Amino acid sequence: MAKRTGSARNGAEVRDxxxxxxxxxxxxxxxxxxxxxxxxxxxxxAAISALxxxxxxxxxxxxxxxxxxxxxIADIAGRIKATKxxxxxLRHPLAHEDTFQEASEQLSAVVRAxxxxxxxxxxxxxxxxxxxNEVRSQLPEGYQSSRLKDLNDVTLRIFEACNFQDLTGQRIxxxxxxxxxxxxxxxxxxxxxNSKEFEALPLPPSIAKHDDGLALxxxxxxxxxxxxxxxxxxxx
Length: 236
Description:
The chain contains 7 helices and 2 strands; from the N terminus they run H-H-H-H-H-H-E-E-H. By secondary structure, it is mainly alpha-helical. The protein has a domain at 87-207. Strands 1-2 form a two-stranded antiparallel ribbon. Helix 3 runs antiparallel to helix 4 and helix 3 (99-138) runs antiparallel to helix 5 (164-192). The protein is rod-shaped. The model has no long low-confidence stretch (mean pLDDT 74).
């Protein structure tokens, strides 16, 4: 009985194991079939070859272009430095003379001087005209009266010629405005860089001319006029 019971139990265990194994085998998916995959490396090799070609061109042609760019950059730097020197000659931070201001003052002095001279000429011509009219009124009609009339015509031409002062004054004013515009542009360009860069540049030469300590320019406002004796002394 014991042997039979043991045999039966062992048989049941064997059957249970077989059933469990069968169930486990039925739950798993079947393994995929084995496939032979072939890879095409032609595109990769072509890309590597193209990259190698680009590197070769960089080491040969592109390197030459880089040298040319360096030369051009050096040329631009030289031109910028030359431009700074020219701007410093016009507006040096340490210079005592302001070129634009000096030019504007001189032109303004020209306008004032021509205006004053024109007024003197017109006043003198008016006096001449009054004298001629007075003399004509005392003379009878004849040769003398006719010549005095001709003198009136000459005086009229003097009045007409004095209109030059208005035209020259307007044109000189336009020049002064152009100088002011250029001065503003130069100040704007100089503000881009540090003022210390311009201070290190050489000072421009003085444009003022002197002869034995005498400045060779006309008298400015508030200055006494040079006498004729002083002018004659320069030529002695």
